[in-house]
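Homework help thread (please don't just give me the answer)

Our assignment gives two proteins as sequence + structure token strings and asks us to describe the second one. The first is just a warm-up. Here they are:
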Amino acid sequence: MATAERQLSMHKIAPAWKWLFFVVIALGAIAASFHFDGSTRHWVVAHSSRAVKVMMHNVSRYGDWPEHVLAGLLVVAIAPCAATNAGFTLA
């Protein structure tokens, strides 16, 4: 009887560990984004060009983050096809 109770309790604990893992990963990503914000801003200013400024202006014209995420997912979906057609192999 002790082993059945032990197995039952482990099934209840496992989902809690999964949630804890994802919460810790999310908090780490948030902390990393704040930590690298200054250095990212410095890199963007140092490597700026007219073409990049025009692109950023055009991107900001379309709205908030949902549109940007959608555009990024579209680019990620198209990139493997474009790389294959250009003769690049993706590992």
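The one we have to describe:
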Amino acid sequence: MTRINPINSILIVTDNVTRRKIYQLFFGARGVYVELVGDGAEAINKFESGAFDLILNDLQSQDCHGNRIAEHIHDSGTVTPMITMTSAKDFTHPHHATVLQKPFSMETLVSKIQTVAAA
């Protein structure tokens, strides 16, 4: 499998168990360390306790909206890039610079990751 350079670690926030399994297999096969969390509170805790090259944030989470996660990351002063995944049409928010419209292919996700990583 082709590596996704320069990404070595990703924090993925989604409450969808099937998507978590797919992401784990997909990114793991490409040599990327994946930390999977199912809710916003857990995402904030993992973010605080680790260093990640990228965050994939599902806008709709069980216990908190993705905006809360984005605002926490923004307020921390980190430069960790984040891609927000959403099915909302024309979504904009000042702390969500990169939005990926659902549904999307894994090829589209990788392309978006490479664009964000190159910025």
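TA reply:
I won't write it for you, but here's a hint about the kind of observation we're looking for: The chain has a mean pLDDT of 83.
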